[in-house]
Amino acid sequence: MIAITDVSESDLSIIQDIAHRTWPSTFEAILSPTQISYMLEIMYSLDSLKAQIQDKNHVFLLAKDQTDDEPLGYVSYELNYKKEPLTKVHKIYLLPSSQGKGVGRLLIDKVAEIAQCNGNNRLGLNVNRFNKALQFYERMGFLMVGQEDIDIGEGFLMEDFILEKQLT
Ligand SMILES: CC(C)(COP(=O)(O)OP(=O)(O)OC[C@H]1O[C@@H](n2cnc3c(N)ncnc32)[C@H](O)[C@@H]1OP(=O)(O)O)[C@@H](O)C(=O)NCCC(=O)NCCS
User: Fold this and answer.
1) Ligand 1: does its nearest atom lie under 6 Å from the Cβ of 22?
2) Which superfamily does CATH assign the domain made up of 2-120 to?
3) What is the DSSP letter of 76?
4) What does pLDDT average to in each consecutive run of 10 residues of the chain (168 residues)?
5) What is the CA(154)–ligand 1 centre distance, in A?
6) Is 24 a pocket residue for ligand 1 (Cβ < 6 Å)?
7) 131-150: buried (b, 16+ CB within 10 Å) or exposed (e) per residue?
8) How far does residue 136's CA lie from ligand 1's centre (Å)?
9) What residue owns the CA closest to ligand 1's atom 13?
10) Ligand 1 contacts CB of residue 136 (under 6 A)
């Protein structure tokens, strides 16, 4: 059984650890090792994670295996993104050994439920144009609404599709 729990500031090192164990296999065929290290630093230093929670209203949820309390992965989201009735899914990462077992679906369904409880009528997210997670999102009912290249400094770009899912 999977439990989905809120993440407090004292748990942020768990998020950081999962990211460091998941990003290499996720992005090794897409991004250079230097870009992966740079992005992990700007997005997953403990200071950055704290700022996401405290200043940017990001909420992190952790999926755990209830039998042994082991963390499996996380999602972060932001309600009312840019003052629209849209919940932005900023991050969703499962440890390699926990992928393909339905946990991603549980996390997206949970965020969708929270979004609807808060009056939001769609989910939105960005995904790297070359990430196979794109097929997961399509399976979950997301549609492509655009694309953008985001300059993240040091000469690096995030080359993303923008996806949205209507909530009924
Ligand atoms: C992307 C990710 C969150 C998906 O979660 P998951 O637990 O592996 O996916 P699920 O097992 O819940 O799959 C749900 C459905 O999507 C399908 N799916 C999942 N990954 C897929 C893929 N790569 N290609 C095609 N279909 C896929 C599953 O077959 C399943 O379909 P079904 O309902 O018909 O059985 C997870 O694989 C992951 O963390 N990947 C690496 C990190 C990453 O890329 N994160 C996204 C960054 S934007």
Assistant:
1) yes
2) Gcn5-related N-acetyltransferase (GNAT) (3.40.630.30)
3) E
4) 95 97 97 96 98 97 96 98 98 98 98 98 98 98 98 96 96
5) 30
6) no
7) beebebbeeeebeeeeeeee
8) 4
9) 102
10) yes
